[in-house]
Amino acid sequence: MGVRVVQFPGGNTQIETCECQTEQRIVRLLHRASIPARYVHCSLESYDASFPGADRSLAAAFLMARRFVDGYPATTEGRGLLLTGSIGVGKTHLAVGILHALIVEKGVHGLFCDYRELLKEIQNSYNPQVATTEMEILQPVFDAEVLVLDELGAAKPTDWVWDTVALILNTRYNDKRTTLITTNYADQPPGGANGSNGANRVMREETLGDRIGERMRSRLAEMCVMIEMRGEDFRRTVGRARFG
Q1: Domain extent for 71
Q2: Please, which residues have CB within 8 angstroms of residue 18's CB and are 6 or more apart in sequence?
Q3: Are 20 and 69 contained in the same domain?
């Protein structure tokens, strides 16, 4: 069931997978990707960068996303994408859209992880009353062919957080796994582009370097191509991310 034998002139035969079996496999892969209900509707086809007032960077980001999917894995060579921008510009929609397209078009094994929720799961595993171990939580994150790590830097930075981020990113880097990352923080070193600190630091917005450390930010430059998405929070008017 799900397989057919094709007879060619001359007596040669070939076994082919039926379309129904392919569709069932895609459904299973999408289910295993653990895309949240809030984003399950997100695809490249539903991504809109042409609404009134849209910044040009959004259309450029879409083109890069489409090219990334079309070229995967031959042209990407294990490198992923780092989507940066303020809240509500569609970073998660685009990342999930890429993951969805890679599953449907390329049959990849993908996984969606919310950065804060992942850290909470790991911390909870330290509770002796919880049966799940830290490695049981992290292994699927390590092994996913394509990982979406959403809202990197959203958790308060501590030594433990930095060590955990380093473990995840370094493991995937060493294994040449593709990682798609979204973050609300500018891809700049700690202290900002000018390295300001002290009293001046209170007056400025934090950077990705502040949130994950400069060593890991540098590693991201090796792992990912950066895509900056600019604009206002348009979820309120466009309904970018809604519960299904």
Answers
A1: 35-238
A2: 2, 3, 4
A3: no
